[in-house]
Amino acid sequence: VDSLRALVARLERERLLGHPDVEIYFAPINTSQPDRQSPEDFEAFFRLFQEVARKTGRPPSLNWQFLDGILRMQSRRVAPRTRFCSLGSETGYLLDPRGDLYDCYEEAGRLDRRVGTVADGGLKWFPLKETYTRRHLLNQPECLQCPMALLCGGGCARLAGVHNGSLFKPYCLQNKEYIAQTLKAYYGMLARRNGGKRSDGAAPPA
Q: How far out from the chain centre does Cα 188 lie?
């Protein structure tokens, strides 16, 4: 956390923090491990998250879609998310020079993770494609008990397979905390724009 604080201070000195051509985001790269990370570390980390949000004018979230998903759900025009990413959604694939198709860019090049291939003028699909289409919230029982499920989508399928042994288990790291901090930063920004008042005229909660 101290190193991160020093990095943010340097970015501010170099006038990169808040620069229109620079986006800053915080990425959770480890699970919460009480033996390595104290509650004080998390509190300091999220205080820094809110500080960067104030100075840049946007929450420094790894996945800006957290907030976008909330706003679109409020408009009732778009269905909530049931997947973490486009994997399994059949909206697009990665095609490599050999003609192999992948559903996840982190799996590209691994022949055992192909979902299809283009060969002899035709298209051949592999069973993994169908497996990936079934990776959504309804097939992840743990997610159905989570209040953040429609914003998170169950986390990364690839990492769920690597760390949890199954694509159908969630791997969401600190997504709950990130979503909460993103909302806090966003509504804090709205309150500051409104002169410290909520849209209903009341003062925001501390």
A: 20
